[in-house]
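RECORD TYPE: inverse folding
INPUT: structure tokens
STRUCTURE:
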């Protein structure tokens, strides 16, 4: 006989999502540290946290889906958060991909210029900031934080575009080695994926809360 799951409330759903945010933030921190100084154990921890994030996403999403089939709208104003676990799982996937790049960079001795290193570290810092802003908006339920999050995402996109253009110039000038360039652009794409899923969480929340206020 199956075990009946306890009913999810807005608070328990929010708590589960915030725990996932914390795991994703820790993955970003460990990956950044490994970029600065090769630390295989740290990268192994990133993989372990990634597996935990996958497991949490499946459990939480399945729980939400089962409850909403039986009790639609039972999560009230937290209903818009049902997408968040899947988005955070995708963010975790992107961080794991960054960690794999970094493992290869260190193992194969691929040289990154000082400029490229500074840019990557800037992206790590900005990505961590986006995740912190997302967690703050979820934790407080303050919808006034969402336009700020949207602006931060737009600024992140613009920064990625600027870095891509500048790096392409360095490639054409022969300043950057081709293999290092391939890794840089791959990492840039993974950072863009992190921003994309943060943005989707913010957009979903803004639409849902605007609709709720108009009803």
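DESIGNED SEQUENCE:
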């Amino acid at each position: 006989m199956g075990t009946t799951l306890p009913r999810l409330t807005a608070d328990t759903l929010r708590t589960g999502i915030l725990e996932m945010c914390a795991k994703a933030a820790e993955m970003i921190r460990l990956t950044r540290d490994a970029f600065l100084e090769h630390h295989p154990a740290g990268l192994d921890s990133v993989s372990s946290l990634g597996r935990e994030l996958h497991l949490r996403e499946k459990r939480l999403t399945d729980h939400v889906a089962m409850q909403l089939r039986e009790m639609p709208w039972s999560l009230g104003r937290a209903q818009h958060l049902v997408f968040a676990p899947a988005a955070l799982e995708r963010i975790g996937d992107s961080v794991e991909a960054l960690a794999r790049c970094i493992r290869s960079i260190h193992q194969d001795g691929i040289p990154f210029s000082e400029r490229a290193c500074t840019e990557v570290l800037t992206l790590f810092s900005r990505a961590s900031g986006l995740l912190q802003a997302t967690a703050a908006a979820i934790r407080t339920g303050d919808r006034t934080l969402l336009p700020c999050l949207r602006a931060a995402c737009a600024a992140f996109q613009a920064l990625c575009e600027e870095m891509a253009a500048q790096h392409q110039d360095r490639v054409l000038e022969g300043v950057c080695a081709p293999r290092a360039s391939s890794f840089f652009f791959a990492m840039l794409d993974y950072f863009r994926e992190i921003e994309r899923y943060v943005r989707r969480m913010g957009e979903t929340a803004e639409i849902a809360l605007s609709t709720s206020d108009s009803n």
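NOTES: Residues 133 and 149 are 6 Å apart (CA to CA).
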